[in-house]
Amino acid sequence: MNSPGRPAAGDAYITLHGRSTWALVNAYHAAVRERGLRPERVVIVTEEPYAEAASTAEAAVGMVSEGYGLSPEIQVEVLPEADFVRAGQTIRSLAGDFIRQGYDVAIDITSGRKVTVAGALIALSVAGLDIRHIYYLAMKTTDDIAKPYMMIPHQVQRIHDLIEDAAALSA
């Protein structure tokens, strides 16, 4: 929710990159196609061992965006490997900056490694930031899924918004 007097700047999307570039790109594609995400800013947060693959993810996010008439500013943030505290600090800082700039913030945890995901979610929770969406692309199988989103049968995959799902549980 935007604060009074704060103009809406649009969507900002923070995605956590780990071992699977396909998971990151497909989750982004699902969020854009199925959930109506229209990011103006995208940040790919990765760890040092995966930094080289993050450039491929960056290019792929750009291509998917272009296919939907979007041209977000895309950046990559590289973290030290398995640094829970640094992951939390970085993602809390990015989300806080985006919120102060008027963006609605979405985070995708699909491809993130556990330490990065845990660090991010704990830091965001402790900070009490107004994160609008936490996306996770669930797959019913891991067989033959290293390919573009549109080539994977729809019944095998489902994009979840964990914030919406949690709200439905408490209703």
TrEMBL record:
<protein>
    <recommendedName>
        <fullName>CRISPR-associated protein</fullName>
    </recommendedName>
</protein>
